Amino acid sequence: MLSTSLLVAHGSRDPRPQQALNQLAKRLGERPGCSLVGTATLELAPLPLHQQIQNFAKLSQSWGYSQVQILPLFLSSGVHVNADLPEEIAIAQAQIGSEIQLNLLPYFGSQVNHLAPLISTKMATLEIENWILIAHGSRHPGGNQPIEQLSAQIRAIPVYWSVSPNLDTQIQVLISSGVNQIGIIPYFMFSGGITDAIAQSIQQFSQQFPTVKFDLISPLEIDENLVALIEDLLLYSATH
Predict the structure, then answer these.
(1) Is the CB of residue 47 less than 8 Å from the CB of residue 76?
(2) Are 118 and 209 within one domain?
(3) Whole-structure pTM value
(4) Pick from 170, 171, 184, 185: which is nearest to 116 by CA?
(5) 239 with 227: CB under 8 angstroms?
(6) Same domain as 91, residue 14
(7) Cβ–Cβ under 8 Å, residues 182 and 216
(8) Which CATH number do you get for residue 133?
(9) pLDDT of 36-48, one tens digit each?
């Protein structure tokens, strides 16, 4: 690879997302095609993101690299992707000058055509006709479009955690129509507080509707398929 790679996630008080982010970077760094792979978070880090980027850029430069590929591990196109990340990268680039180039890659959730087969493969392990995909959701205009596109490709009903339509409403609609088996796809980059809350909600629904079977899958586990997909994206970006 002609450049180093920096994975940027949202950040969380829950330690699990950072642990998963570190694991992902470690596995990518062990791949033959990858070089130095670092991590950073937009929020809840000891340093602001632009300083984290500067530090990684300086490390990359000390290793002889002249470019850093920055991959936002975000799944929807909200304010963070459209405003916060470009602003932080611009600050970092201004501080480090032109000796090393910072390249902002398309956010991970924009890769709908690659993510759909990944998720469909896991859905195929269960014989379920009615699926619900639950994502965080965004109030930014057009922010949920990739979620809608992905849901259409995998034939799932999209709902959101932070905006409507929500999970509870859609489950009620399906049950009212006579559905007795529902698959739930929590579409989040890493497990954390929200995915825990979704699992608790499903347990409550199971108690409330004992004749309905609920199945919960984990679509974005850090497995070989996910690591290979991200590696391919980084390699393609570094050579085009």
Answers:
(1) no
(2) yes
(3) 0.94
(4) 185
(5) no
(6) yes
(7) no
(8) 3.40.50.1400
(9) 999 999 999 999 9
